[in-house]
Amino acid sequence: MFDNFPLWPVRASSGAGNVDALYIFLLALSAFMCLAIFTMILVFATMYRRRRGIEAEQIEGSTPLEITWSLIPLAIFMVIFAWGAVIYFHERTPPRGASEVYVVAKQWMWKLQHQEGQREINELHVPVGRDVKLIMTSQDAIHSFYIPAFRIKQDVLPGRYTTVWFRATRPGVYHLFCGQYCGTMHSGMIGQIVVMEPAQYQAWLSGGGTTGSLAASGENIFQQLGCPTCHRSDTQGRGPNLVGIFGKPVQLEDGRTVVADEDYVRESILSPSAKVMKGFKPIMPVFQGLVGEEQLNALVAYVKSLTPSPSGTAGGPGSAPAGTKSQDPKE
Amino acid sequence: MSEHILSSKLYYAIWIMLLVLTVVTALVARVDLGPFNTIVALVIATFKALLVVLFFMHVKYTSEKLTKMVIVAAVFWLLLLLALSMADYTTRLLS
Amino acid sequence: MATAAITAEREHYLNNEYGIRSWLLTTDHKRIALLYLISITFFFFVGGFFALLIRLELLTPAGDMVQADTYNKLFTMHGQVMIFFFLIPSIPAVLGNFLVPLMIGAKDLAFPRINLLSWYLYIIAGAIYVHCILTGGVDTGWTFYTPFSTAFSNTKVIEAGIAIFIAGFSSILTGLNFVVTIHRMRAPGMTWSRLPLFIWAHYATSIIQLLGTPVLAITLLLVVFERAFNLGIFDPTRGGDPLLFQHLFWFYSHPAVYIMILPAMAVESEVVACFTRKRIFGYNFVAMSSILIAVFGFLVWAHHMFVAGISLYSALIFSMLSYLVAVPSAIKVFNWTATMYKGSISFTTPMLYAFGFIGLFTMGGLTGLFLACLGIDVHVHDTYFVIAHFHYIMVGGAVMGYLGGMHFWWPKISGRMYPEGWGRLAALLVFVGFNLTFFPQFILGYMGMPRRYWQYPPEFQVLNVLSTAGSTVLAVGYLLPMVYFLWSMRYGKIAEDNPWGAAGLEWQTTSPPPTFNFEEPPEVTWEAYNYEQIPAPAEVQVER
Amino acid sequence: MSDSQIAVEQHGPELLHHFVDAEQQRDAASLGMWLFLATEIMFFGGMFCAYLIYRYWYYNEFAAGSRSIDLKWGTINTAVLICSSLTVALGVRAAQMGKRKLLVVLLLLTIVFGLTFLGIKGLEWYTKFEEHHIPGHSFNASDLEKPPYSNGGIDQQHEQIFFSLYFAMTGLHALHMIIGVGMFIFLTYYAWKGRYSPKYYTPIEMGGLYWHFVDIVWIYLFPLLYLIDRKPLG
């Protein structure tokens, strides 16, 4: 109904409708409250305007009334809170199997890396109906990835990953804004989200000349940096075997356990001594300043792709099936 | 109007206690108590702080409830800042 | 008029001493209030000038009037000037300073010299900030978010940080003075339950100033240290956490909103009581709601950080707590409305501002529900929806309250009446101009226009033009009182001691009050707002 | 209102005009000072908050950093500060009893203790400077021993955060000490001049409250900075 209404943003994702529904509920509630209060004020102001000989009636107040107009709003507020919390929880829990896009924000542009290997700047192509999870980090200040048509926004922080996900429902071109003030050309840090029908998207994918999947380029970097010397595919390496490590809990020497998520892999590359796996020595060199954010993303994608082969014998880094999609992992 | 004047003996006693506690806390820290090292250190520090507040700062002898209220409010607000900030930091890994 | 002639001869706080020294070295809370009035008015127009430039730039989608960097400095300095140098001191330091001792029947604030010191701190801070503006300005956004402010901005962050640090201490000292004064200096018989609601709200404000401001001070100091001495506390490339800055910053800066709005609510209660000629409905609840707002206000800060990368669970906690603070605010609106029931309402300028306040504050408060709601906030956070919301609270609420209060107590402050007709016109202009400026921004925000944008997509233009048009009306509305207040100081009708027939000790002394406020030390034997015992003034218009 | 009239007529020069009597003035000053101390708690509180979070994140580095600070001097300094608190408390007592010379002597002792503390603190800072433990470009913490129970090394960046907080916290504490010493110099001068009497010693009392507060901050800083991990290295 609001699709062609110029005062309402386009609704183009699976979550946008939920947000709009709650928004309309709140609008109606607010309009009702405003109307009630303004009418009362107007009525009182007319009925009880000052007249000669008529004194104001002194009324002390009423505790039952006070309790009523405290508790009823509180109850309504709790409903709003719960409703909003459900939407938020949904927004912040990416579904399993979502395809992943790595985002690097820098002053003042967005750099995006598809799993399949495509790279884009200030533009993101996605197919209709697919869950897309964005794994984002910033190279400098804080930015914020904001797509009004999808009703999603997430700050992009330097030094760690934040994620956001969506499922586009309508083909079209939508705004991408930077939502967090980040310096001179903050307002120029904009781009577009191109939502395509799946067939068109496939065409777009095969159209761009890519250099292999993100995980494959991650593997190249892995080799170049000499990582396989220690991170071997057996248990003999000086560093842990990375196959199948992603997403699993890791036991640390001081007794703590952490989950090997994107942030852990990232931290372990940049400052390896922070959380060393039990049974290993802090001998890995620090890569802070040696690998850029985009290379880091490729490495993370590579580590993620290292799943044990079905036969049970762990596939070494060299033999891992890197790409997960139809793309050939090697050039 | 003049306040109750405390005997100097009391001040010396508190002073000795504070000095002893300082040495104790430094010595206890050298013993491995696991996570209790921190707790013991903070308990001793709080006890020392209480001694200073109650006796050196005369809060034990003041008839004014307001002073105590101000102290409690300030400590409460400090804990509020710490607790609600930590509510974020301690649960980040869960989500 | 015979009384007028006597009033003119009488010695009062304005004419007992002359000369610049008698003002700059005064310890009289009323004179310090006027010093504050002059200084904050200066900053109000500085901030307003920046606002107009911002609105002019946004007339067109392209960034075609000023450079991007200039625009960034404009909104940064607009925010910092308006918040730290106008809104936070506005009602407390001017009206509060003037009225707190008068209302409780004291000769002065508890620490008159500290009061003067706090004005000097404010002036030092203001001078540093003006120097910062004149030598290049600062472009971090008023929020100083790290690591942009510590590592990337090339502007005068240190200077601005130090200025606001010092202004913070000025604010702390004002709050400290109020709390001690309210506890220790009440006249005999002025019990807590007889205090005007103005005092209760200022007490609540002072609590926030005392317990919140130091956290801002240390946070800004750490930012300054980080820039100056290379500490790495907020620097993510060195293991620091930029979110920690946001936590500490909002621990103060969310309650700071209540530092601005509570005193406006204070004015509101006095004005509504006077012009309905009634005791405020539910006195106890209105008084307690001020304290509750002050306390709950500290529990909700992370609702500014729902998309900043805080944990899911703390977002849930903070969202729920945010709704708690809405309850006492709602109680106040309901009670003011109920006070009008069976009242005897007159439509003077202060009352018009009061009506405006209730309307705009209600809208600001209700849109606050949207922002505290997690699902909605993700979409509207850092868009013009937020801008519109907090301007409804801080301009629609706090500035309306301030102007209403200035009109209400102007006879007491200056001993002269302002021109009523002009006053009503200005109130109307402010109300219309305000809504025209800020209502379109709600729509812009939901459409997705981010804040702090120097250029924007063309579909947002119509609403931006409306907003800019409104801002010019608003500017006229703000300039008018400035002109006729000055005019009235010389040509205004001499004010009686109690021109409104208002309750409250401040109206029992002469207008303007003598240096020590009361000729005879007052003794209070009545409850607050005893309007049944005070005759209605004949002069106030009976019919609309 | 006859009470206040009498009070006004009888009051000494130290009673300010807007107070009804000396008791009201004294109560106001005391409440004002306590409120000021409450703001000070929140002022240091911001740093304690940062400390808590980073200690939670980077415990190993905090433990290593803590071990590198000299416990001996820290303990001695704590004792020095406690002694200064004693002399202040006794000083207030001397003022209450009107013993002018004793008051002056005790205040001077407090100043000496305060300066001793600052001197030792300066020495400790200087050592850290020599060891390149000052945050900044020349920061180098590779000499720190790693915690025995962790095979993780010391992350230089995270270690720097510990030292950033160490210098910020002890620095601001020292600044408070300097302000306190300056204040006591004035108070000593006026005490020497005989301004204070058993009827009027509020400035001494308020100065004492401030000094004790600064002492309490140190009482917490000591275990939080020096005693994070002093277990024997295995």
Which characteristics define this entry?
heterotetramer, A: 331 residues, alpha+beta, Immunoglobulin-like, 2 domains, five-stranded mixed beta sheet, elongated, D: 234 residues, Four Helix Bundle (Hemerythrin (Met), subunit A), 75% helix, 0% strand, disordered N terminus
Q: Quote the distance from N terminus to C terminus of chain C.
A: 27 Å
- Output the CATH homologous superfamily of chain D: Cytochrome c oxidase, subunit III, four-helix bundle
| Percentage of residues in strands of chain C | under 5%
> What is the tally of beta strands of chain D?
0
CATH topology term of chain D: Four Helix Bundle (Hemerythrin (Met), subunit A)
Classify the secondary structure makeup of chain D into a structural class: mainly alpha
Oligomer: heterotetramer
**pLDDT averaged over residues of chain D:** 89
The ordered H/E elements of chain D are HHHHHHH
Task: Give your account of this protein's structure.
The complex is a heterotetramer of chains A (331), B (95), C (544) and D (234). Chain A has 331 residues and is an alpha+beta fold. Chain A folds into two domains: 1-45 and 94-210, Cupredoxins -  blue copper proteins (Immunoglobulin-like); 214-319, Orthogonal Bundle (Cytochrome Bc1 Complex, Chain D, domain 2), CATH 1.10.760.10. Chain A has six helices and twelve strands. Chain A has a five-stranded mixed beta sheet with strand order 3-2-1-5-8, with helices on one face. The termini of chain B are far apart. Chain D has 234 residues and is mainly α. Chain D has one domain (38-226): Four Helix Bundle (Hemerythrin (Met), subunit A), CATH 1.20.120.80. Chain D is elongated. Chains in contact: A-C, A-D, B-C, B-D, C-D. Chain B binds chain C through residues 66, 73-74, 77, 80-81, 84-85, 87-89, 91-92, 94-95, and chain C through 183, 211, 215, 243-244, 247-248, 251, 298-299, 301-302, 310-314, 317-318.
Sequence-ordered SSE layout with sheet pairings:
The complex is a heterotetramer of chains A (331), B (95), C (544) and D (234).
Chain A: H1 16-47, H2 63-92, E1 99-106, E2 109-114, E3 119-121, E4 123-127, E5 131-138, E6 143-147, E7 152-156, E8 162-167, E9 172-178, E10 191-196, H3 198-207, H4 214-224, E11 249-251, E12 257-259, H5 262-270, H6 293-305
Parallel strand pairs in A: 1-5, 4-10
Antiparallel strand pairs in A: 1-2, 2-3, 5-8, 6-7, 6-9, 9-10, 11-12
Helix pairs in contact in A: 1-2, 4-6, 5-6
Chain C: H1 2-9, H2 20-24, H3 29-57, H4 68-104, H5 112-134, H6 148-152, H7 157-184, H8 197-229, H9 242-276, H10 283-296, H11 312-340, H12 349-372, H13 374-380, H14 384-414, H15 420-447, H16 461-491
Chain D: H1 2-10, H2 22-57, H3 59-68, H4 71-97, H5 100-130, H6 156-192, H7 202-226
Helix pairs in contact in D: 2-3, 2-6, 2-7, 3-6, 4-5, 4-7, 5-6, 6-7
